[in-house]
Hints:
The complex is a heterodimer.
Chain A: E1 2-9, E2 14-20, H1 25-34, E3 46-50, E4 53-54, E5 72-78, H2 81-86, H3 91-94, H4 100-111, H5 113-119, H6 129-139, H7 157-162, H8 164-172, H9 174-180, H10 183-191, H11 194-202, H12 204-210, H13 213-224, H14 226-245, H15 249-271, H16 278-292, H17 306-316, H18 326-340, H19 349-353, H20 361-372, H21 374-384, H22 387-396, H23 398-406, H24 408-415, H25 417-424, H26 426-445, H27 452-472, H28 485-488, H29 490-498, H30 504-513, H31 518-527, H32 535-542, H33 550-553, H34 560-568, H35 574-590
Parallel strand pairs in A: 1-5
Antiparallel strand pairs in A: 1-2, 3-4, 3-5
Helix pairs in contact in A: 6-16, 6-18, 8-13, 11-12, 11-15, 15-18, 16-18, 20-26, 21-25, 23-24, 26-35, 27-34, 27-35, 29-30, 30-31
Chain B: E1 2-3, E2 9-10, H1 14-27, E3 34-38, E4 48-54, E5 65-71, E6 82-85, H2 107-110, H3 118-130, H4 132-135
Antiparallel strand pairs in B: 1-2, 3-4, 4-5, 5-6
Amino acid sequence: MEISIKIRMSTGKVFEIKASSSSTMTQIKQIIANDSNSGNCAVERQRLIHKGRILNDDSKSCSDYGITDNSHTIHLVKSSAKKASAAPAPAPVSTTSPSPVQSAPATNTSGQPTNTASGGNSNQNSFDPFSMMNMMGDMNMNNGNDNNPLFGAPPNMEELMNNPEQMSAIMNSPMMQSLTNNPDFMRSMMENNPQMRQLLDSNPELRHMLDDPELMRRSMEMMRDPSAMRNMMRNQDLALSQIENMPGGFNALRNMYEDVQAPMMDAMVNGGRDNSSTSTTNASTSENANRGAAGAAMPNPWASSSSSNSSTTNSNTPSSNSSNSSTPAANPFAAMMGGANNGNNNSNPWANMGAGGNGQMPNMEQTIQMLENPMISQMMNDLMSNPQMMQNIMSSNPMLQQMTQANPQVAQMFNNPDFMRTMMDPNNLRSMMQMQNSMQGMGLGNGIPSSNGNAGLDFSTMLNQMQSTSLQNSGGNFNSNPVPPEQRFRMQLQSLNDMGFDDNPVNISALLQTHGNVNRAIDLLLTNPPAPYQQQSSAASSVPSVSSNPWAAAPAPSDSANDESQVSSPPSDNSNEEDATPKNATEKKND
Amino acid sequence: MQRTPAGETVIVPRNFKLLEELEGSEKGHGDMAISYGLVDPGDTFLREWNGGILGPPGTYHDGRFYELRITCTDNYPAEPPTVKFISKINMTCVDPRSGLVQHSRLSATKNWNRNLGIEQILTGLRREMCSDANRRLRQPAEGLTF
C-alpha cells in the first residue's frame, strides 16, 4: 500500500515523501537522501524519529514501526558525520552502493583535513571564531531580555566571548542558521558593500571561499561548541607566535595584513561611517580582531583567503593553516551590521517588533534608520517573504510563542509576509513615530501620566477592539470606518443568543463595554445588565477610531496578560484612551 | 480544563485528552525537538507512551536523543504521568538510579494542571537540560540505559 509520509526536519521544514508501507527504513532513508528537500542528507547521517522512538533498525519496515497510513510525521534529525560513524550504525548491513549524493559530503570532509592536519588543529574548521563574534557583537541586539538568545544578546563583545553558552545559543537560533545556510543571501550581502565587492574581485579565492556553504556550515558548527572554540583560539595563538619566530615570517604577516585585512577594515569602517557612534562598534570590532591574533598588537593577519593560506603561508611555516580565512567571511556581516548600527545598538527591529525590548522613542528612530539601509531592508525582505523562517523565529522565541498562542490572529498576522513587509516599511514606521510623538504631547497635556503601565492598559483596550474589528473584516484589512456594533459583534451576539440572552440591544452594549469578550459580557449581563445600546452615541464613544496603520495591530500580541486586566477596566475615559492608543501601539513594542 | 464560550469550565475526560495528544504526536505538531507516541498502537487505554527528547545544542546533550517511557495513570490528567528516562542521563530532576523524573523537581510537573500534557513535560525536561544546574553536569556515555 502506498503511503505518503511527512518528513519534518530540524529546521522546521516539512516535505512529503511517497513510500510503501512495506518499505524498510533503508529504503525510506534512501528516498529522503534523494529528495532535494532534505538537502540530500546522506543516509548515514539521517536519524529518523517517530513517536518518540528512533527508527534505527534499518531492516524494519514502516508497518513494523506502525507507520501504516497517511499523515504520519517522521522527524528527521541530521547527526554530525563524525557521530554517525562512531555510532553502532546498523546501516552498513543493508546499505546499497552509495549514491553520488551520499558521497559528496564525505569527500568534502576529507578534503578539509589537509588544511587542519598540517596546522595541528583538531577542529575541522577554517573559520575564525572572533570574526563571527565581531559580527554578533555588532548586531549587538537588545539588552532587555537576557533569556532570549536571539533577541537579547549581551551588550558587548567581551561579555559574549566570555559566555560561550550564549554564543552558541545565538548561533543555534534558527534565524542565524537559516541566514548562514543561505549562500545566496551571504553573497548578496557581500555584493552590497562596494568595498567588499572590490576586495572580492581582486581576490577571487576569497570569493570562492565565501561561496562554499559547506565551509560556512562547518564554521557555524564549530561556533556552537564552546570547547572547540577555545581550542581553536589556543591553536591560533600558537601558530602566530611560531610564525613570528620564523625568519621572514613577520613580513609575510604584515604583507598579508596590508593586502587583505586593511582594505577589509576600510570597508567596514566606511560601511558604518554615517552613524555617529558606530566608531565605537568598529573600534571594538578591530579590537577583537586583534585579540584574535593572540593578543598581539598586530591585527589578525589570518584574514587572508584560504587559498592564499595554502600558497603563501604554507611556504613560510608549517603551522599556518590552523587558522585561516575567517575574518573576511565574517566582516561583511560586521560591515552590514556596522552600517545598520546606531547609537547604542538598541535598534534591533525584532526587539521592537516582538514584545521584548526596552527601547524608548529614540530607538524607534534608530530602527527606522536601520530599516532604511538597503542591505537591511533586503535582509528583512528575505526574512519576510519566507514564512518558514518567520515560523522558526517565532518558535525559537518563547515570548513570541506565548504571544502567538494566546492570539491566533497574531500568529496569522506574522505569517502573512505582506503584512510584515508593510509593518517594516520605514515610511510607516516614521509616521507611526510622529504619531507617537504627538500623542505623547497630548497625553501629557491631558494630565495623563504617560507611564508604561497606563499606556499598556489603554493600549490593550484598543487592541481588543481592534481584534474584534478585524475579525469581522474578513480580509484582515484594518480599515478605519467603524462598523456598527451589531455587525462587528455578530458572532458574539450569536453565541449570546444561543445561550439565551436574547435582548440584543442590551447584549450589544454589554459587548461594547467588554470589547467583545463574550465571557465578560455574560458576567456583566448577569450581575449588572447595562442599558440597552443606542445607535450613535455608544458606538462613537467606545470604539476609538481604529488606526489604519498596520503597526497598530502588530504589537497586539504583546501582552496577553495585560489583555485580561484591560478588559475589565471600564472604558470610562474614552477620549483619553483614544489619544493614548496609537502611542501605546509603538510603546508596547518596546517594553 | 477548558472554558466554553459561555465561561463554564469543562473537564476533558482522560481518554479524550490523550487521544488529542496522540493525534498531535502523529501529525508532528508542536515542538521539533521532542517526539512521543504510544508504545503499542493497540493500547486502548493509552497508558504507555514512548517519549523522545533531542538534546539541546550547546550543552552536553547536543546531538543526543533521549528515550523515555511515560505512563499515564488512570488519574491522568488530574495528576501528571510517571516519566522515566530509558537512556541514561544525569539531571537534577532525575533519580540517578531508576531514571524516574521526580515530579517535585521539574517545574512542569510541580505546577501541574489539567491543561498540560505529555508534550509540555517533554519540552519542560528539555528546557531543564539547558538550565544552569544541569547544563554543566557530566553525562554518561551515549547509548547507556537505566
